[in-house]
């Protein structure tokens, strides 16, 4: 099944909406969560593959300078975060599928883990924005 490409922000908003519904009153809660997690998985993968240029440098923000070693480390940290998110999402998807097949549907642990992932994704987006802004600011010579 091909999922529409979404930005990470759109996908996390979709995940937040899925978490807001009450699993006790919705037969489709697990299916909605699974779909939202799949959207986040695709967005995280897209984000990871487009964080750097094909030549390996930080995404161009319109300047001429090469990224500093510190900036390269920060980008590597962002890649590490995204890789960790992908593993966590796959684990959560496995748990959703197991829960769907189980006679006993205890969603609370799954909700808590997914909420923690959502918060981590929000922090990641803030970190990434800071890295891009810092790269652009340094490249433009701000503070000189």
SSE blueprint and pairings:
Blueprint: H1 8-20, H2 29-50, H3 69-101, H4 108-140
How does this structure look, described?
- It is a single chain.
- The protein is mainly α.
- The chain has a single domain, classed as Cytochrome c/b562 (Four Helix Bundle (Hemerythrin (Met), subunit A), Up-down Bundle), CATH 1.20.120.
- Helix content is 70%, strand content 0%.
- It has four helices and no strands.
- The protein has helices spanning 8-20, 29-50, 69-101, 108-140.
- α2 packs antiparallel against α3.
- It is elongated, with a radius of gyration of 18 Å.
- The relative contact order is 0.16.
Which sequence of SSEs, written as H and E, runs from N to C? Answer: HHHH
The H-level CATH homologous superfamily, spelled out, is Cytochrome c/b562
Distance between the termini: 51 Å
CATH architecture: Up-down Bundle
Mean pLDDT, as a whole number?
Answer: 81
The CATH topology corresponds to: Four Helix Bundle (Hemerythrin (Met), subunit A)
Give the biggest beta sheet.
none
Relative strand content:
under 5%
DSSP summary: helix tally: 4
Give start-end ranges of low-pLDDT stretches: none
């Amino acid at each position: 099944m091909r999922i529409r490409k979404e930005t990470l922000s759109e996908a996390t908003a979709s995940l937040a909406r899925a978490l807001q519904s009450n699993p006790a009153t919705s037969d489709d809660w697990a299916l909605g969560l699974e779909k939202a997690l799949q959207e986040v998985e695709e967005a995280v993968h897209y984000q990871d593959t487009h964080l750097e240029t094909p030549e390996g440098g930080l995404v161009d923000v319109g300047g001429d300078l090469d990224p500093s070693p510190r900036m390269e480390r920060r980008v590597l940290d962002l890649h590490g975060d995204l890789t960790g998110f992908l593993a966590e999402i796959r684990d959560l998807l496995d748990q959703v599928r197991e829960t769907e097949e189980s006679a006993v549907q205890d969603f609370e642990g799954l909700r808590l883990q997914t909420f923690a992932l959502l918060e981590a994704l929000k922090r990641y987006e803030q970190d990434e924005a800071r890295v891009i802004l810092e790269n652009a600011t340094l490249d433009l010579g701000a503070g000189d």
